[in-house]
Amino acid sequence: MAADQNTGAPFSPTENRVMDALQSVIDPELGVDIVNLGLIYDVQVDDQQLCVITMTLTTMGCPVSNVLSQQIIEQALATDGVAKCKINLVWEPVWSPNMMTRYAKIALGIHE
Which residues contact 51 (CB under 8 A, 6 or more apart)? Predict the structure, then answer.
């Protein structure tokens, strides 16, 4: 998974389920899911079942950010153990194609 940028603590089972669910959120411009694109930096679920997803976008002016946010929240809330969801949108570290998984690079025709 592309959550290598998380805070360093291993994901809980609930956090892993959220990450799995987020793989169904496809960036409509690129046709690849947001996890493999490397857009998800961290997922944290607390004792009150609040899920905080720290993420970025490929560009600051991403025209599909509202659509992605809605789908991300829907997928998180559909996960057992999550009652509320908040997105923490960050711009550092800056996203780059190097953050994509091998799967995403192959899907987009990027060869290294």
Answer: 14, 15, 18, 43, 44, 45, 76, 79, 82, 84, 85, 86
Quick one: which of 86, 88, 4, 21 has its CA closest to 49?
Answer: 86
Give burial (CB, 10 Å; 0-12/13-18/19+) of 31.
Answer: exposed
pLDDT in tens, 89-106: 999 999 999 999 999 999
Angle among Cα 32, 79, 74 to the nearest 5 degrees reads 60
CATH fold label, 3-93: GMP Synthetase; Chain A, domain 3 (3.30.300)
Model confidence over 21-53: pLDDT tens digits? 999 999 998 999 999 999 999 999 999 999 999
